[in-house]
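Thanks for the sequence, V.! I ran Flagellar motor switch protein FliM right away. Repeating your input here for the record:
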Amino acid sequence: MAGDILSQSEIDALLSAISTGEMSAEDMKKEDETRKVKVYDFKRALRFSKDQIRSLTRIHENFARLLTTYFSAQLRTYVQISVASVDQIPFEEFIRSIPNMTLINIFEVPPLDGNILMEVNPNIAYTMLDRMMGGVGESPGKVDNLTEIELKIMTNLFERSFDNLREAWSGIIDIDPFLTEIEVNPQFLQMISPNETVVVISFNIIIGESSGMINICIPHVVLEPIVPNLSVRYWMQTNKKEPTTEQSMVIEKRLKQAPLSVIAELGNAEMTIEDFLYLQAGDVVKLDRKIDDPLVINIGGIPKFTAQPGQLKNKMAVQIIDTKIGGDEDDE
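Predicted structure:
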């Protein structure tokens, strides 16, 4: 009863029951303790926290918006997609929840290991196919094996949609999804163990007058390497503010004081390891430059200037005679 707000009539009825002896305070206490007991099914192991589920929801809400724009352009009709639910369930339960004949896209998401499923309701899949082939967007209401032409059309449609998935996940990890297979019978899928926990993101999709569901199934083993990134703390760390003008000036000042190696290169020479091992004081090594050729000045290991050797106050020195002989423009 803790946390419940009772109306005045309910309070009066409760007080009346206690005063007449129909219910005692001990009975109320026992009932309250009974409600604190929760049944836990070990077959439905919860591998993701509520915080991580919220992060997955946020990622796929962005994915839904991107898909809405993409499918509207490709199908040339009104398309609306929204996240209906995000649940973690055993893989076996997910397989039982989808139709026996449906359209299942199986794709990989390097650098993550494993496969991800995108199950498209037959009503929606055939509506998409009809629109792509010039129809008005009607579904036959049944699922048959796709012909090679139909399979190629659907493959191209969904392969291009993965660019949106890549963009939606870019705040967490840079993935490179690609389609590996299209299946119509979920019973043939042997992707992971039946008891393995998966996250199922369900989307409501409306195409013209047709509506249905798209489900994305992501096994826990696929997301396991980046589970720590699915926390609010990680999102807050990645959304850092740009430095102020004062901070930029401090950084610039410190960069100007950073030491750089400046090396005047007289030339290069190649020799065998045997000759190198027998080098002694007084030996002459022939370089690949003439005595009157300019020297190369390397700044931080990058050739930036040419110079001529000389002497300044009884010390060896070089005089810059030209700039920029190598490296990138951005290195200046």
